[in-house]
Amino acid sequence: MTVGRLKKIAFCLTLIFLLLLCGSALQAREGMGKSCLFRVTAPGSTVYLLGSIHFMRETAYPLKDTIEKAFAASSRAVFEVDMSTMDSPDTQAMMLSRSIYIDGNTLRGSLSPSLYQNLAEKTAEFGLDVTMLDAFKPWSVAMTLMGLKLGQLGFDPAKGVDRYFYARARSVGKSTSGLETLSYQIGLFDALSSREQEWLVEQTIRDFDTMESEMGEMIRFWTRGDIENLERMLMKSFTDYPELYQKFLVRRNLNWLSQIELLLDRREVTFVVVGAGHLLGRDGLVNLLRARGYVVEQR
Question: Which end of the chain is less congested by CB atoms within 10 angstroms, N or C?
């Protein structure tokens, strides 16, 4: 497997990690049989917030009519990042430069011997020698490994909800934009401590055997708008690492809140797609917007 192939997998995995690592409790169940779509209203304007799952199977489509109608009614689509930049050579070069060691360190030297051995066993399942990854940082390796496993199970980033609506927006001429840059997202991972990065590898390996059932369950909760159970699945990643909750969820939600309020000032209908975990809990966008006085309804 070439370095380019490895980095493409890792690149696509950035968004799914941001979903799996970001979640918090919504204080009450909001209507079973709905969807993970919320309508935010202000005088003369509407913002639809759709919680995304970034890896899906073809069988997940078509989506519910309420979601499709909200998209059709919107004049613009906004995503976590500017999707038009995701496959550019400059982006790939940036990903590579941030993902490899340049200080003489190695993956083997960054992980405990037992974890490195466990990792070697998992990569061997895909015909990959772990020594091929020795130049890469643990966070990047964890993302690559998860991508390999999800691909083996039939989950495809090209079928993710964000990719789906970006393609739809382009096909009908809707304007698109992002709430933050991909460089910023990668920087969040690259700034993780050695222990936090090791934890990502541990967590990925630990979840290998249950990944298919958990992804299937997560998609079922997402499809029927079962926010309470969706939150339960997402929140467990933060149990032992509350500082990651602050880094990956709280700070970013506060940054996005001001941008969503600007969209609500535009007096038009906007369709916003972000990882589902960003909508949930006391620090989620739903509660933050309600605290600002906006009417927010699950659809």
Answer: N
Token pair of 99 as six digits: 């993902």
* CA dihedral (119, 189, 232, 179) positive or negative: negative
* pLDDT tens per residue, range 190-219: 999 999 999 899 989 998 999 999 988 989
**Residue 240 sits in which domain range?**
3-298
Q: Look at 103 and 233; give whichever has higher pLDDT.
A: 103
- Alpha-carbon distance 262 to 227, whole Å? 26
Count CB neighbours of 86 within 10 A. Answer: 21
Question: Residue-wise over 106-139: b if at least 16 C-beta within 10 A, else e?
Answer: ebeebbeeeebebbeebbeeeebebeebbebbbb
Residue 45 phi, psi (nearest 5): -150, 160
pTM of the predicted structure, to 2 decimals = 0.87
Domain count, the chain: 1
